Amino acid sequence: MDVTQTTAEGLKREFRVVVPAADLETRLNDRLVRLKDQVRLNGFRPGKVPVAHLRKLYGRAVMAEAIEELVRETNAKIVTDNGFKLAMDPQVKMPEDKAEIEAVVDGKNDLAYTVALEVVPAIELADFKGVSLERLVVEVGPEEIQEALKRLADGNKPFSPKPEGSAGETGDRLTISFVGRIGGEPFEGGTGEDIQLVIGSGQFIPGFEDQLLGAKAGDTRTVSVTFPENYLAEKLAGKAAEFDVTVKSVEAPGEVAIDDDFAKKLGLESLAKLEEAIAERIKADYTAQSRQKLKRQLLDKLDELHKFEPPPTLVDEEFKAVWETVLSDLKTQNRTFADEGTDEEKARAEYRGIADRRVRLGLVLAEIGEKNAIKVTDEEISRAIIERARQYPGQEQQVWDFYRKNPGALASVRAPIFEEKVVDYILELATVTDRTVPKDELFKDDEQAAA
C-alpha cells in the first residue's frame, strides 16, 4: 500500500492512497475463508463449501466489505502515524468512473482514492498560575431575608369567599372558566376550566386581569387582549384574541402571621429555621451568579491567552447553529437587524467572531482536560440524568432511556460536566481575589458593566 500526502494547507491535509489489487485479493480470500465456516448452503456440509463457490456467490459483496474495512483501517493509521487530532471525520473520495470501480471490485485494478482531513492545531497552553481573577461576593442581609419571608407569606395567604355580589379588586382571587378565540375561531390552549387567578399577579397576558376588575361571581365578560410579540407559542405571538370569561367565585385574601406556626406549615420547626433556610437559598443564588461571572472572566482570559486559527469546518458548523438561532429569535420577536441597530453583514461578522471564540475555547478546555487527565465518571453522568429526569414527574424512566440510548443526548450531558471540572481545575491554579459588592453590582449584566 502506498500513502502519499498531497496537500498541507493550513489545517487541511490530503492523502492519496493506492492499494494493489493483490492486497485486495488477499483480504478477499481471508474473508471468504472465514465465511466458509459461517454459511449454510444446500448440498454442502457445514464448513465444506469451496471458497471458489463462495466467491462466485458472494465475491463482489465481500470485496466491497473488504474495501470498506481497509479504508477505515488506513484512515486510522494515517491519523495515528502523523499524530493528528481530527476536527472532522475523514472525507474519502473514491473513483467516480463506474468502469474503474467495477474493475477494482472484480479484483482487476488497484484501488486508488483520496482522503481529506482537517486537523486540530497544536495548542500551547498558558501558565494558569499567572492568571488573576476577581470573585464578586454579596453578603445576605436581614432585610433581604424579611423581604423573602413576606413574599413567601403573600404566596401562602388564605382566601375566603367575599359576600355575595362583591366585586373583584386587585389582590382578590377569582375562579374562572374561559374560551379563547382568534379571528372568531377557538385555538389550541385557549380554553380553561376552574382556573384560579389573583388579580394583579401578572399570571395572564397583559391586560387580561385588568378587565376583570369589578367582576362578580356569575358574571360573564369578553376580554380582548393581544399576545406579546415574544410570546413563547410562536403561532400566537402578536395575535389579537378574545376570551369569553365566566367568573365562578370571588375570594378575598387573608393575613398570614409570620411566626413559628407559619414555619411549621412549611415543614420547618421554627421561624428561625425558616429564616436560615431562606438565607441559604439566597446565598446559593448569589453563589451561582458569582460563579457565572467568575467563569466569564476566566473564559475571557483564556481567549486572550490562546490565539490560534481554529479548524474552519468547526467554526462553520458553530456559526450555522448560532446564526439559525439569531434568525429564529428575530422572527419570533418580529424584529429586524435594523431594530437591533445593525445590518445583516455586520451581524454575520459579529456572530462569526462569537463562533470562532466558542470553538477555540472548546478546544482549549478539551486540551486542558486531556493533558491533566480530567474525566467525567459514569456516576456523574448518571446523577445528571437523574436530575433531568426529576423535572418530568411520571416520565422518569422514559427520560432515562432516552439519554442512555442516544449518544448525542448523552454527550450533551457529559459536556457541561467536563467543562465545569476543567474550570475548577484552572481556578485552583489561578489567583482568585474576593471582593464584596452590593447585590445590584453582582446582577448587573455584562453590557451594563462594560459601559
TrEMBL record:
Location within or outside the cell: Cytoplasm
Predominant localisation class: cytoplasm
Record GO cellular component, one term: cytoplasm
Record field: catalytic activity: [protein]-peptidylproline (omega=180) = [protein]-peptidylproline (omega=0)
Entry's Gene Ontology BP terms: 'de novo' cotranslational protein folding; cell division; protein transport; protein unfolding
SUPFAM superfamilies named in the record: FKBP-like, Triger factor/SurA peptide-binding domain-like, Trigger factor ribosome-binding domain
EC assignment: 5.2.1.8
Gene3D superfamilies: 3.10.50.40, Trigger factor ribosome-binding domain, Trigger factor, C-terminal domain
MF GO annotations: peptidyl-prolyl cis-trans isomerase activity; protein folding chaperone; ribosome binding
Keyword terms of this UniProt record: Cell cycle, Cell division, Chaperone, Cytoplasm, Isomerase, Rotamase
Alphabetized InterPro entries for the sequence: PPIase_dom_sf, PPIase_FKBP_dom, Trig_fac, Trigger_fac_C, Trigger_fac_C_sf, Trigger_fac_ribosome-bd_bac, Trigger_fac_ribosome-bd_sf, Trigger_fact/SurA_dom_sf
Functional description taken from the UniProt entry: Involved in protein export. Acts as a chaperone by maintaining the newly synthesized protein in an open conformation. Functions as a peptidyl-prolyl cis-trans isomerase.
Entry comment, domain topic: Consists of 3 domains; the N-terminus binds the ribosome, the middle domain has PPIase activity, while the C-terminus has intrinsic chaperone activity on its own.
Family as reported in the entry's similarity comment: Belongs to the FKBP-type PPIase family. Tig subfamily.
Protein name listed in UniProt: Trigger factor
Organism, as annotated: Rhodoplanes elegans
Gene name as annotated: tig
